[in-house]
Write a structure and sequence with these properties.
There is one protein chain. The protein has 253 residues and is of the alpha/beta class. The chain has 2 domains: 132 residues, Rossmann fold, CATH 3.40.50; 96 residues, Winged helix-like DNA-binding domain superfamily/Winged helix DNA-binding domain (Arc Repressor Mutant, subunit A, Orthogonal Bundle), CATH 1.10.10. The chain is 38% helix and 20% strand. The protein is built from 9 helices and 12 strands. A 5-stranded parallel beta sheet has the order 2-1-3-4-5, sandwiched between helices. It starts with 17 loop residues before the first helix and ends with a strand.
Length: 253
Amino acid sequence: MLRVAENLPSPGFQGTPQRILQKVSTPSTDRILVVEDDRAVQRALRRLFEAEGYTVLAASDGKEAVELFRNILPSAVVLDLRLPGLSGREVCGELKQTSPAVPIIVLSAASDVSDKVLLLELGADDYVTKPFSPRELLARVRAALRRTARPKETEKFAFDGILIDFSKMEVVREGKVITLTAQEFKTLKFMVQNPERVITRDELLNEVWGYHNYPSTRTVDNHILKLRQKLEKEPANPVHFRTVHGVGYKFIS
């Protein structure tokens, strides 16, 4: 168990992170916002990320988290689901509305696993169930940061009267702005950046949702259906978002 300064056990962790805390790391420009109301876990998370060279800011409730997020715009957020005041779900929605591109890794007790689908629909990038190992959490945060740091081939992309502005997360079809959810936009972006390649449902789940044990691949089907309804001229006869039966989907511009 990870122990904090007072030598009290921190129930959200597994393993022996003392080895991690002793590591000398190159300073990073990335800032991690930790949203956790348990002070012992909050301190442990701060030490964990600071030992890896990250700058850490912490909030103990939802309202404080939203205010800090808007003031500092962190590189990533580690968000506990059970918070006083605003719930973790409400905070996740608020943060994604403010800046959809900032990855959010949700922490939650096993009993909250039923909220997984809703949180990922709101735009959460990953979900870690307590108790968890520091090594696993670090790996997931790093993976989320790598995804957001990937160089963009282009800031804009156009096809069939549709203009996509990746920097603004905006889609315009024949002069009209089309509203997409955070996950719909991520799905669209991944498919556009991988044209004419067969993409499996599992690959979409891993790359877009960032979670390897998502409850059902039907989630992918539902998102493709929504993209067809919003972007295809004839959703029932799609030209751009094509089904590859038994495998997944392919984007054709």
